[in-house]
């Protein structure tokens, strides 16, 4: 017998869709809203009240179960929240009770106990521990560098009047593009040819640096007889290449320096002091950790060592005793008893038109000469970079990296000696040298400053090297022109430019006429009579 199917009763809604009323078994039952995120499993519905409190009803706002939640209305109204958290004490009161307890306990123990003397090794260890703690507490923290205040290159007298202060940020924004090329007025001296065998020197094939006793003339501007002669007919601003390089690269300097400025009859003469250390080469001047210790690695001893190395290297790499290249005129600084003992050097007196009626005349230098691939004569400036202690100067050890990573060695030198390298580059550009050649010289032993070895050489075109070290010559000329204009506005007299030893500031002082007196007074008196 087949089963009989009884269809359920249905309601026909002619006005819309859905049921027409609520079934009897669902009357007086509250409506439970739901959302798309509701769990349809029957066992999970017991967690609805907890989830509502935690997440605030869900994304769609209808996932609660508050209709079936049991609420204690009377108990909730009478309930009070008690804060059981500990009240934080101020910083000055923290640990005070414990400290007082420890102090009281220490005093009681001190009264009730007798000190036990230490004997032998225990006493020695205790004394060393106390000394070590004493110095550890007083000294700087680990990783901190205690920078000493540097001393000024000249003692500034109270009677000197400050005319102008020039800070480096302002000088760094100056710019002057020269519209005219420099012209040569006169060339003097004799040059020896460069020995190309030193281009093949490597770390494995090092050469011992020799001591060559030759005379190097470092004559200031007003003591130069050629400049004295040219001052009557050419220009109105006079200086040497080293003085100009110091002024043009002043924004890179950290150490103090000073330059005398004398204005006579509307003409400016830039001089160095006779007893100054102006010609000494600085070492690690722009390093993050400049040398500060005493002894062989003090700043002054390192400067003396670097100058000694530079002089010897510039002569050792030449073909000494062979034919020399002679300029138009002989060396103006050689006396009769110095013939044959003077270093190889040529002087080029040049003139620059800086516009606005400012004409600069300067003495520039070449160190050597060589023959190019086309048979032409090329002038060279030779400079020495010296390694004194790689642990204290960047951690780049030349004997390990010079042959394989020469760029890393040069980059470390550019960081530690940015000012010195910029000055050398400016001097080569002012002299119109074809090449600037660097020699890498290191100590034979770490603590021996008298014996050195040559580890290699490297040469650059001065203009290319200036671009490599970000040396902007327009900015350099702008700085020089700014200083010249400041001095030209003042009346005739003697002035002093001083770089502050600890701040990026250059100050211009008005000093009495008898300050730093030298033999140049007769020259200025003679010049005034001629006018």
Automatic annotation (TrEMBL):
Entry keyword Cytoplasm: yes
Comment on protein domains: The RNA gate region regulates mRNA cap recognition to prevent promiscuous mRNA-binding before assembly of eif3d into the full eukaryotic translation initiation factor 3 (eIF-3) complex.
Entry's transmembrane regions: none
Positions of the UniProt region annotated as RNA gate: 277-291
Role noted for this protein: mRNA cap-binding component of the eukaryotic translation initiation factor 3 (eIF-3) complex, which is involved in protein synthesis of a specialized repertoire of mRNAs and, together with other initiation factors, stimulates binding of mRNA and methionyl-tRNAi to the 40S ribosome. The eIF-3 complex specifically targets and initiates translation of a subset of mRNAs involved in cell proliferation. In the eIF-3 complex, eif3d specifically recognizes and binds the 7-methylguanosine cap of a subset of mRNAs.
Region (Disordered): 1-21
The family this protein is said to belong to: Belongs to the eIF-3 subunit D family.
One Pfam family linked to the record: eIF-3_zeta
Self-association state and partner proteins as the record states: Component of the eukaryotic translation initiation factor 3 (eIF-3) complex.
GO biological process, one term: cap-dependent translational initiation
An example molecular function term from Gene Ontology annotations: translation initiation factor activity
Subcellular location: Cytoplasm
Domain of life: Eukaryota
One Gene Ontology term, aspect cellular component: eukaryotic translation initiation factor 3 complex
Full protein name: Eukaryotic translation initiation factor 3 subunit D
Main location, first listed in the record: cytoplasm
Protein keywords: Cytoplasm, Initiation factor, Protein biosynthesis, RNA-binding
